[in-house]
Amino acid sequence: MVRGSEVREIEAPPNIRSFFHGKPPSLWCRGDLTILNHTLLGIISAREIDSELALESSQLVKQLAFIKDVSFVGGWHSPLEEQALRILLAQEVSIVFCVSKALERFIPSIEVVSRVVQGQALLLTHCSPKAKRITRDASMRRNELVVELAKAVLVLSAPEGSASLKLARSALGRGKPVHTLEHRLNKDLLIAGAVPATLETIEEALR
């Protein structure tokens, strides 16, 4: 049996029990569970972007990939999240994939499967094997799980009215370090108290 190849039900870490709102704190995973013990930087993004923000995001993630002893957690679903994932997969970093469906129904890429086999990736979901389809609520909960697991969060795009902005504001309200790029799409989040995202400010938050 390849290490971590089977889907396992696990009890969630004590520090994220509030995520379950009193329900049984169960998660399902495939891969190296010890990655959850790493210092985790969460990455989330709304779908709205422009070429300038895409370039700035790419440049920052390339720098972040070289921070020592840090792993990355995300849903890796929106365009900027997918771009960040491509950059991180090109480096020797550990990655947590939060999934918005049952893992039995999730088909990862060959590259991701290879990372799981090598102990450099963890597939994680709050959806039980009984979940038959993806719902908007499951997708929102996936991003909430990303934020809960992360020591600090990088929000690449959070335009007015977006779910990413709402989630980031909630994280700020609970004292979670939130960083975002200085860009017009992120002005409301910066006003709400997010720290301008640079390599230096994120490294400081992760210490």
Structure summary:
The chain has 207 residues and is an alpha/beta fold. It has one domain (8-206): Rossmann fold. Helices cover 34% and strands 19% of the residues.
Description:
The structure is a single chain. The chain is α/β, with parallel strands linked by helices and 207 residues long. It is 34% helix and 19% strand. It has a nine-stranded mixed beta sheet, with helices on both faces. The longest helix is centred in the N-terminal third of the chain and has 14 residues, at 51-64.
What's the topology here?
Elements: E1 8-11, E2 26-31, E3 39-44, H1 51-64, E4 70-74, H2 79-89, E5 95-99, H3 110-117, E6 121-125, H4 136-149, E7 152-155, H5 163-173, E8 178-180, H6 187-191, E9 195-196, H7 199-206
Helix pairs in contact: 1-2, 4-5
List the keywords.
Rossmann fold, 207 residues, globular, 7 helices, single chain, alpha/beta
Q: What does the main sheet amount to?
A: 9 strands, mixed
Spatial ordering of strands, largest sheet: 1-2-6-5-4-3-7-8-9
**Principal-axis shape:** globular
Mean pLDDT equals 93
Which runs of at least 5 residues are low in confidence (pLDDT < 50)?
none
Write down the CATH topology. Rossmann fold
- Strand segment count: 9
The CATH architecture classification is 3-Layer(aba) Sandwich
> What is the succession of H and E elements?
EEEHEHEHEHEHEHEH
Total individual domains: 1
Q: Count the helices. How many? A: 7
- Indicate the proportion of strand residues: 15-25%
Using the coordinates above, name the CATH class: Alpha Beta
Class of secondary structure makeup: alpha/beta
Helix content: 25-40%
Distance between the termini: 37 Å
